[in-house]
């Protein structure tokens, strides 16, 4: 039996593999931090429109600055359009409506980053209140699935495939040393398995699903801890061999790679972006 060699690659420039020309993205948690960084990176890679979904009725000043900057990219390989939608990822009906609205308006859906997440308070695991545990799960697990559904339904509708990225965390792999946040560890570990599960179900439709696990990153997320005890920056930095926390822009490359054709055989994977935190 002879083995048929695959056809030669269709693109000749590596940058074309990473390009997101004319693609449409939905990003939850897109009003700040890693979600907003990812939105800008996708716009820079040529996306036609990136819809940032988040809780506040109106986008932050930071988001507006990024939108204005991205708009200047119009005509330079992309459209540079960032759109803001106020929605709560815990509301499944609303998230489906958001997906449908984007599909109706743009006639396609290519990329999803389910990035909205909450940490919750540090509480003794034997005393953890049920309602609070539920609140974290509703955002970090249910909300991630509702977001993936919102985009995935539109990818199915337009039969064009797509890339869905679920935001996990180093907390899905190891427990945070010295922090009583069982709710967060549990919710992020669920995201890993959700990504694998969706990846297996949706692959026949050309929809890839992967997760990203950042280590400690300097966003608004760890701010409640750092405001009270600034020494945490040093403690968390010491938890990886690079001896520093990650900067928000250090998520950009991985997000564009996963969103693009450059990762076309990457499915059901988790990509760690943690300075080596997991290696210790
Ligand atoms: N910063 C870190 O150290 C770190 C590390 C690992 C993973 N993460 C994960 O990355 C993601 C983004 O975090 P970040 O660091 O950019 O923090 P961030 O606080 O800047 O961003 C989180 C965003 O999610 C939004 N959000 C929260 N609940 C929501 C809801 N119910 N509906 C819609 N939006 C909601 C917030 O308003 C916020 O804009 C989170 O899922 C977080 O768990 C962060």
UniProtKB/TrEMBL annotation:
Alphabetically ordered keywords of this record: Oxidoreductase
Homology family: Belongs to the short-chain dehydrogenases/reductases (SDR) family.
Stored InterPro entries: NAD(P)-bd_dom_sf, SDR_fam
Molecular function per GO: oxidoreductase activity, acting on NAD(P)H, oxygen as acceptor; oxidoreductase activity, acting on the CH-OH group of donors, NAD or NADP as acceptor
Record carries keyword Oxidoreductase: yes
Designated name of the protein: Sorbose reductase sou1
Annotated Pfam families: adh_short_C2
Domain of life: Eukaryota
